[in-house]
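Case study.
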Amino acid sequence: MTRVRRSRRPGRLLTAACATVLALLALAACFGTALLPGWDRQDLALGAAMPDATHWLGTDALGRDIAQLLVAGARSTLAGAALVALGAMVLGNALGLLAGYLGGRVDAVVHRLADLLLALPALLVTLVVAGIGGGGYALAVGVLVVLTSPGDIRLVRSAVREQRHLPYVEAAETLGLSRATVAVRHIWPNVLPVVVANTLLNFAGAVVSLSALSFLGLGVPPGAPDWGRLLADNRTLLYDNPSAALAPALLIVVAAVALNLLGDRLHEAFTDRGRS
Amino acid sequence: MAVSAPVPATPLLAVEGLRLAATASGTPVPLLDGVSLTVGRGESVAIVGESGSGKSLTMRAAMGLLPDGVEVTGGTVRLDGTDLGTLPPRERAALRGHRMSLLLQDPFTMLHPQLTCGRQIADGLRPGFAAPGGGRARRAAVRAEVVRRLAEVGLDAAVADRHPHELSGGMRQRVATAAALAGDPDLLIADEPTTALDAANRRAVLDLLGELRARRGMGLVLVTHDLRAAFSAGDRVHVLYAGQILEQGPATRLHTVPGHPYTAALLAAEPSLTERYAELPALPGSVPPPGSRGSGCPFADRCPHTAGLCRTTPLLATPVPGAPQDPPHLTACLRAAELGPGLAPVRRTVVERGGEEEGDPEPAPEQAALHLRGLHRVFRSPAGDHTALHEVDLTVRRGQIVALAGESGSGKTTLARIAAGLESADRGTCVVGGVPLTAGRRPTTAERRRLASRVQIVFQDPYSSLNPLRDVGATLREALTATRGRLPRAEADAEVARLLDQVRLPASYARRRPAALSGGERQRVAVARALAARPELLICDEAVAALDVSVQAQLLSLLGQLRDSEGFAVLFITHDLAVVRQLADRAVVMHRGRVVEQGPAARVLDRPEHPWTRRMLDGHLTP
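After joint prediction, the assembly is written out as follows.
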């Protein structure tokens, strides 16, 4: 049967838009503070002001320019989220591959561990850990890595189990290749599409989670430029300068949506790789 | 079933000049080019063709169930004179199940896994199914009807309460048949209904379909790539190739006096149950893909009789010279008249290879390619234990081709997997090319490394037996380095080219990904990968079962030739006894985990001793 795919030209445009948005955000994260050396200049006399020609998005209660704060804040928001996604990917793939390929007792232990972690309410755990450990950005990232990984473990494990008994894997085994080689060189590349897509989804989720933690005061210290923090600090300014709270919220949403869409698109592209 | 029913003036189904095209890429690519056929009431029509011929698409177009991106670009489909193309989708949907019904190939995915079989049949009953009263009385009436329907397909009432996963493949296909017939359709379209079944069930399902057709007086369209199924179950046969009908006529005539070189070539490529041929004449090349078909005969590039005009003259169905008028025997071959009886396949039969006689002394365990004694394997599950292998003894001598035949679930694949080191036996001796395997555990990496040069395996499914992300060259190079150590790049490339040449593939294929290969080509690459390890024993687990007959013939010839030149032994697992006849020196028949009969292939097939062997022989389809 001939399978024919619908044209996805509009999809391509959307993908390009998402990639552009993310590239701009990445630039801001890398060079934002260097390009805008005066991002943290205060003007207490001005206080919270509506947007005008000098302050495009207005100012916060300390008279800091919101637009510049947002650019400077890209780093803590995005870098932390990227770390969470990558950390969960490494942890999840290693354990998922082990459990899915070896099966048996290893699988039972890893799988129960993942179940246990999934059963814990994420925010509560973070609150408790932050309460004991004294909060802080590094701690928040670390806790999110551990809490995100069970999803990756389960996903990779089930994808690997699907591949494990396919003839190409068994053929590699009858060639006398070591288990590690079979798992890493044969199986892993074939589960990569879901891994990549999921990592981007985790990234998007982590942007939101980290912002939430900052919002609750458990992430970055007060005053630091971070979208979640800005949203939290400026929500009282809704009448004086609504954009001070809405702009960071919007950025969080835009970044998360762009990452989600790009993740979907990458998933498709990777899945097509094996076809002609 | 050879007697054909008279075709009434308005046929039940009339497809005329049907054209289909793939429209997704912007420019339409023609898939089907002017296909016409008729099916009368009570008549059974087979559409036979290799994969990619468009046979399934034709019937999906008739059902109005074309996949996305495929569109009707011409022609009509009429049911009882009504042009289905002009009906609104809703009315068309109402016809499905009640006027025309579709029975699909895969009994494992065709039924809803979470509904009982009875419910699935009940769902298909006519909406106005006459049931007196309401509530309980109605339910009882529906239940009685479902039981009656199950009895019609030869199943007992208890099946109604079972879920599909509790049934065997053959039983599921019967349930699916009952569900497809629940709406009492006038026309049943069966798309490869027997392909996923083993020989015994294949025959039974075809017999059942024939019986139902006769009893209900419905039209039956059998879409299949299996020539034997087509010729044994169809009154008339249409041969479809690259989207066009090359020949049509009564089954008996097509089989004995084919009017088209393609039909003749297909028939010649089919192994026989009773005779072993010196060579199965394999068709060169493969079906031209859509978009690359010229204006002339699509078969011209592979045809031994091609003349100049063949490539340019559009196809036109003409009566085969000397054929009776009714039903007509038409061919699209320009040269049918001059070729005449020259089209009938000429095949030389040969005697069995001498090799081994009954009573020859057994080789010592370490001298044999495979030595199994008392091999036992039980699969335990909460649902109950299943003894897959029951004290099996088997010897494969060096250089010998042993066929292992049996129905599905007979334990032949378990045996193969144990011999290949992919599974472990519970107890018993297993020595592969002198390497003993320990019962009770899977081989360690070190053992697998030793085993690799002794045994290799080729699997059934050509689509998953190669890593989809690696090109052919990378796959073969890995097999080389895994079994012979690292080679310099130039040497490895030369070796890859040599391996490809051994399986008759051009060296340029090294750069292709599996997705760019046909099923037969993938199986050749799988054979080449196995040969890279220079094994003493090559296990083929139904390696040709999923292939078209012309491709199957190519692969069977190739295996025979490679055995002669390389000297390895072959354990060939199959449910097709004609393949056993064609290829094997020795035949082993398994049934429910036991070896019930073994001996020289010719003896086992000509003078079977065990009732089960006789049953398998009886189940074999003959045109």
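Observations recorded in class. Chain A touches chain B through 27 residues (CB under 8 Å). Chain A is about 75% helix and 0% strand. We will return to this complex in the next lecture.
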